[in-house]
Design a protein that fits this description.
This protein is an alpha/beta fold. It has a single domain, classed as TIM Barrel. It has seven helices and eight strands. The protein has an eight-stranded parallel β-sheet with strand order 1-8-7-6-5-4-3-2. Helix 4 links the parallel strand 4 and strand 5. The relative contact order is 0.15.
Length: 226
């Protein structure tokens, strides 16, 4: 797999699950860096999505790292389970746990990389004590829980401010953007400094689109095209 400064993380919740193997093969052949797996419990967000079974099946098929986003209550109860997925990144929402530093340590103790999510209503400063300890920060530009949302006004500016904050403080972590990463928003998100892009229904899996063509288009934009 090639090492790139900017990485694509297709949101498999948005994929055609009846043709998932076809799309996985395309992603593998095109050196897609991560697979974004949304885990929802119907409590923290009012929706259900993928689960451990699909993570396990994908892990048995490919070594591509899984970017596992726990949009759930009590994430610490499930870290040992999801950390079984080789080369995984486990991201949780720190506001749902009493002691997020313990949850980060738990993730790392089980051999996974640790990520935290920044919700639209939160400020990056509120997460300052956690940033030296994580490998990834997921900047949400929509409210967590549902696909096909429009970006929250000011979301890209917040992304830019977050990137500046991370860089100015010298934190060593990847900055991911998640939420309406559309063809229209993608160039601005790229220019704002995001490094990992969660690609869903407004780009990679757009209705009527061709995944192979969309991979090429996405790469072209990340490399400086429009």
């Amino acid at each position: 797999m090639q090492t790139r400064a900017r990485k694509i993380s297709p949101s498999l919740m948005c994929a055609d699950l009846l043709n998932l193997k076809r799309d996985l093969d395309l992603f593998i052949d095109n050196d897609i860096e991560y697979f974004h797996i949304d885990i929802m419990d119907g409590h923290y967000v009012h929706n259900f999505s993928l689960g451990f079974g699909i993570c396990q099946a994908i892990s048995s098929y490919t070594d591509t790292p899984q970017d596992i986003h726990l949009m759930i209550d009590n994430p610490e109860d499930f870290v040992p389970l999801f950390a079984q997925i080789k080369s995984s990144i486990i991201t949780f929402h720190p506001e749902v746990v009493y002691h997020p530093l313990r949850t980060i340590a738990l993730i790392k103790r089980h051999g996974a990389r640790a990520g935290i999510a920044l919700n639209p209503a939160q400020t990056i400063e509120s997460l300052k004590p956690l940033l030296p300890h994580v490998d990834l920060l997921c900047v949400m530009t929509v409210v967590p829980g549902f696909v096909s949302q429009s970006i929250i006004p000011g979301g890209i500016e917040k992304l830019r401010e977050t990137v500046d904050y991370i860089r100015s403080n010298g934190y060593e972590l990847e900055i991911e953007v998640d939420g309406n990463v559309s063809w229209e928003n993608l160039p601005e998100m790229r220019d704002a400094g995001a490094q990992v892009f969660v690609a869903g229904t407004s780009s990679m899996f757009e209705s009527g689109g061709d995944v192979q063509s969309n991979i090429r288009r996405f790469r072209s934009i990340l490399e400086g095209g429009e």
